[in-house]
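User: I'm new to structure prediction. If I give you an amino acid sequence, what do you actually give back? Let's try with this one:
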Amino acid sequence: MKTSRIEPFNMALLWTCTSCGFVWQGGQPHMECPSCEAYKTAFIDIPQHLEAKVREGLKKDQAFNCTEARQQRLELMTQEGVDKRFRVKGRFLP
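Assistant: Good question. You get back a string of structure tokens that encode the predicted 3D arrangement of the chain. For your 94 residues, that looks like this:
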């Protein structure tokens, strides 16, 4: 009898610092932004279509947290008004 193994599904949020545009992938972000040292509440979840635009414009060897990508991310967030209508803000879990 063959049994199928079900792989667990983990949904990763893309936490973005509203101060500098740094992206943290996965679970809750650290207490401070690794780039600008802003407090954890500066992180919001960026919509994935905006992050896709940023990553499409990167060159082959560029990291997704390079200075140009962070600036473009902040500009897109301002244009779309994401920083005003975020869904989840970085916080402590109960």
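You can read the tokens as a compact description of the fold. Here is one thing that stands out. The CA atoms of residues 22 and 35 lie 7 Å apart.
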